[in-house]
Design brief:
The complex is a heterodimer of chains A (about 160) and B (about 725). Chain A has a 5-stranded mixed sheet with strand order 2-1-5-3-4, with helices on both faces. Chain A is about 40% helix and about 15% strand. Chain A has about 160 residues and is of the alpha+beta class. Chain B has 3 domains: about 200 residues, 2-Layer Sandwich (Aldehyde Oxidoreductase, domain 4); about 150 residues, Aldehyde Oxidoreductase, domain 4, CATH 3.30.365; about 325 residues, Aldehyde oxidase/xanthine dehydrogenase, molybdopterin binding domain (Aldehyde Oxidoreductase, domain 4, 2-Layer Sandwich). A 7-stranded mixed sheet of chain B has the order 10-11-8-18-15-16-17. Chain B is about 30% helix and about 20% strand. Chain B contains 20 helices and 27 strands. Classes of the chains: A alpha+beta (about 160), B alpha+beta (about 725). The interface between A and B is large, with 56 and 60 residues. The complex binds FE2/S2 (inorganic) cluster (2 copies).
């Protein structure tokens, strides 16, 4: 039994240590918001956060994750789907088929967590998820919109302090 | 049948089927064109109004990202005059369609036809439902229906000012006959359709709650991974099931048809890893030596073949060439492409002796049903296909449901147990239905004034219809091969040339072809529009002026071309180092044009901006049209930049995104879309614009480098300035 912390919950899974975290999440824990797209770290559909970092879970064996690592999937990104990236995505109608979008959102949220106001160049460098529907233009706009709303929240908080 | 089952089914297949847990869903049986006693809330086949005022609009076509679900709902809601904020949608099943005399007509979602083919009858469905709701209220009040009107789901009796709601009269309305004569609104009076409304299916896609076929989980379900003979047309010789029988989770190893083997296990990862170590011997068959080079040679030779199918001929091209002051000729080629939908092929099937149920992403529920019936051996009425939102379609999940057939064949070997078959990306890459491979030789004559005296196109290569439905062709010409070269219609060739000859020397390699977003409009427009650019330069004329001079009989095409030229600033200086290129065509019933701006830096193409214009006749949701223009550009430009499926030893060499790369966000140009519906017709949206992206970029690239790229992908070419 491997112990994991997923979306703030301690869980135990009975899976071989070589099983990629992607399949542990999907098949053992029923968290199907994390997608399989390539299995070789090329597309980003399987992106989650581990200790705040965007990680492609299709190539991350279960054995490499410990109970102390905080794993956050799209289901745990926010309580009620209200993370600024999710809100921006709704505001701009970013998804088309949507299959890549959970990974895209997780990658974008991780980027904003370390870089509150990413430039277009930052986005070009950091967001390497594949979207076959071609939502890239709205993804970029969505990241900027989420950054703006985070900045507003921060300045509000600052003003109150 | 109780209402419990209906609501369960709604939970299952509705557009926001979050938290899916099912297995008990039952077909809801035959219904008449109007509501049956079992379904008191159905006004007619298209509209259900519930007591809480929720309006459920039935959608027959498939949603795969292109926004059709929202667009069709807008059209019904417009005529229904309901409250858009209370609209939700559901898919009827193809079996229900069959049982109700195809009351929802076609389920096919391809060729950018989802809306343009069905707008009339879905709007009539909405209008009829409105009339029935109003009639029910009028009857209740004992007043003439003509004194009542409806708005946002509220019915008002003008003279008395009395009001009621759709939900209150829905039961009575559902018992009325569906009116045969309905009149539709003029699009200029639309308030729901034609508006840039938000999509109805976004929320679960941003929370992870959306259940795709890949995510389905049924009680007791097993998972299957499949390996098909790497060479198309080959078969399974033998496999050693015992070698993996003891592996964790493995339940069964089965042959699937004559060309594939699958491992069924508790979990997919167990099935996949067991399959990886399963010894399999194949008969590679007659194509074991096939290669792209050999195909290219055969197709290249066909450029000179005596026999070819004529697709468009007017005047006398040979005579026109003869009297030309100058002749220009060029040969182009376009490789195989894979759809590479983000969600790999999958289908989940539960088979028993009297019912075969299929949950799958499909662009054509009726096609999936036919495949399920054929593979299961049960009549279609004993099969059910529950459609799920697709994680991408692009033509891969429409015409041939190989994944459904396989899943049924597997489930049939384990009756009563639901089995989910999911392909690996590697299977998906190597067992696609590929964009056809063709070459084209274009020859044109110019007179002393630089006007075209003749235009001659010889297409050589693969026919999609010959590969997919040979019985439909019967050895004759493939009309689809002439997209954008047709004499008239949805794919009319949009130049006036009085002497024209376009023909197709069909040569079909063993690689299965398929409808790939944009289909033959992709390469045919690339061939034409790059060559037109060559002609303009040979004539020493401005590419915009040259085109316009030769498209006087195509004013709608001229209008979109002028619109992009003007917006992009054609004729004015571009920013330093930036060059422009144009392209235009008619495809899938729409008139489209693009102006691209590119530069070349250190031998690398940089696409800065593409201005696009589409005259799709009628615009149902402008912001979704913009999304489709942008998305189609990414798809088409990914192919132009990087995309090719090559064949060696009979098999496709590209296996995943590392060797079939596609555009990333960093490759994405700015896209400015002009939606300019001229009214009076309904053109497609999902595909047409893909056709102009690549040639506009290539023509700009020529302006930047002086290099004409005539074979693809671009990654094979050195772009350092000539
Ligand atoms: S599935 Fe992990 S990167 Fe593609
Ligand atoms: S939205 Fe379909 S792959 Fe990105």
């Amino acid at each position: 039994m491997a112990k994991l912390n997923v979306n703030g919950r301690d869980v135990e899974v009975d899976a071989d240590g070589s099983t990629p975290l992607l399949w542990v999440l999907r098949e053992h824990l029923g968290l199907t918001g994390t997608k399989y797209g390539c299995g070789i770290a090329q597309c980003g559909a399987c992106t989650v956060h581990i200790n705040g970092q965007a990680v492609r879970t299709c190539v991350r064996p279960l054995a490499s994750v410990s109970a102390g690592d905080e794993i956050v999937t799209i289901e745990g990104l926010s309580e009620d789907g209200s993370h600024p990236v999710q809100q921006a995505w709704r505001e701009l109608d970013v998804p088309q088929c949507g299959y890549c979008q959970t990974g895209m959102i997780m990658a974008s949220a991780a980027l904003l967590a370390k870089n509150a106001a990413p430039s277009d160049d930052d986005i070009d460098r950091e967001i390497t998820n594949i979207c076959r529907c071609g939502t890239y233009r709205r993804v970029r706009a969505g990241i900027h919109l989420a950054a703006d709303s985070l900045a507003k929240d921060a300045s509000k908080a600052g003003g109150a302090a | 049948m109780s209402l419990v089952n209906v609501s369960r089914r709604r939970f299952l297949v509705g557009s926001s089927a979050a938290g899916l847990s099912l297995g008990l869903a039952l077909p809801f049986g035959a219904r008449r064109a109007h509501a049956s006693a079992d379904f008191p809330d159905e006004i007619n086949a298209w509209v259900v109004v519930q007591p809480d005022e929720t309006v459920i609009i039935r959608i027959a076509r498939s949603e795969m990202g292109q926004g059709t679900l929202t667009g069709l709902a807008q059209l019904v809601a417009e005529e229904l005059d309901c409250d858009w904020n209370r609209v939700t949608t559901e898919y009827p099943t193809p079996t229900e369609n069959l049982e109700r005399g195809r009351v929802w007509q076609s389920f096919a979602t391809g060729g950018s036809r989802g809306i343009r083919e069905s707008h009339q009858y879905v709007r009539e469905g909405g209008a009829a439902a409105r009339m029935m709701l109003i009639s029910a209220a009028a009857a209740d009040w004992g007043v003439p229906a003509s004194e009542c009107s409806a708005s946002k789901g509220t019915i008002t009796h003008g003279p008395s000012g009395r009001t009621t709601s759709y939900g209150k009269v829905a039961g009575a309305a559902s018992r009325l006959e569906v009116p045969e004569q309905v009149s539709l609104k003029d699009p200029k009076d639309w308030t729901i359709a034609g508006q840039p409304l938000k999509r109805l299916d976004t929320d679960p896609k941003v929370t992870g709650a959306q259940v795709y076929g890949a995510d389905i989980s049924l009680p007791g379900m097993l998972n299957a991974a499949i390996k098909q003979c790497p060479v198309f047309g080959g078969t399974v010789k033998s496999f050693d099931a015992a070698a993996v029988a003891g592996r964790p989770g493995v339940r069964k190893v089965v042959q699937v048809g004559d060309d594939a083997v699958a491992v069924v296990a508790d979990r997919w990862w167990e099935a996949k890893t067991a399959l990886d170590s399963l010894p399999v011997e194949w008969n590679f068959g007659e194509h074991a030596d096939a290669s792209s080079e050999a195909m290219a040679k055969i197709i290249g030779e066909a450029l000179d073949a005596d026999q070819a199918f004529v697709g468009n001929e007017r005047g006398d091209a040979a005579a026109g060439l003869e009297r030309a002051a100058k002749t220009v000729q060029a040969t182009y080629a376009y490789p195989h492409q894979n759809h590479a939908t983000m969600e790999p092929m999958n289908a989940t099937v539960k088979y028993t002796d009297d019912l075969c149920e299929v949950w799958c992403p499909t662009q054509n529920g009726e096609g999936a049903l036919a495949t399920a019936a054929e593979a299961s051996g049960l009549p279609p009425t004993q099969c059910q296909v529950y459609k799920l939102l697709l994680g991408g379609g692009f033509g891969r999940r429409g015409a041939i449901h190989d994944f459904v057939r396989q899943a049924v064949l597997i489930a049939k070997q384990m009756p009563g147990t639901p089995v989910k078959l999911m392909w690996t990306r590697e299977e998906d890459m190597t067992h696609g239905q590929y964009h056809p491979v063709t070459q084209a030789r274009l020859t044109a004559g110019l007179d002393d004034d630089g006007n075209v005296t003749a235009f001659r196109v010889r297409i050589a290569g693969q026919s999609i219809l010959a590969g997919m439905m040979p019985e439909r062709l019967g050895g004759g010409p493939d009309p689809v091969a002439f997209q954008c070269y047709a004499p008239d219609g949805d794919h009319a060739f949009a130049y006036d040339f009085e002497n024209l000859l376009v023909d197709h020397a069909m040569r079909n390699p063993h690689v299965p072809p398929g409808f790939w977003r944009g289909v033959n409009a992709n390469q045919n427009t690339l061939y034409t529009e790059c060559f037109i650019d060559e002609l303009a330069h040979a004539a020493g004329r401005d590419p915009l002026e040259f085109r316009l001079a030769h498209m006087k009989q195509h004013p709608k095409n001229a209008a979109v071309l002028k619109a992009v030229a003007e917006k992009a600033g054609w004729g004015e200086p571009a920013p330093d180092g930036v060059f422009r290129g144009l392209a235009q065509c008619t495809a899938f019933g729409s008139h489209i044009a693009a102006c691209a701006e590119v530069s070349v830096k250190d031998g690398q193409l940089v696409m800065h901006r593409i201005v696009a214009a589409t005259d799709c006749g009628t615009a149902v949701n402008p912001q979704q049209i913009e999304a489709q223009v942008e998305g189609s550009f990414v798809y088409g430009l990914s192919a132009m930049l990087y995309g090719e499926c090559t064949v060696k030893d009979g098999r496709v060499q590209q296996t995943n995104f590392h060797n079939y790369p596609v555009m990333f966000i960093r490759d994405m140009p700015e896209v400015e879309t002009i939606v300019m519906p001229s009214g009076g017709f309904w053109g497609g949206v999902g595909e047409p614009t893909i056709a102009v992206a690549a040639p506009a970029v290539l023509n700009a690239l020529f302006a930047a480098t002086g290099k004409r790229i005539r074979s693809f992908p671009l990654k094979h070419h050195d772009l350092s300035a000539a």
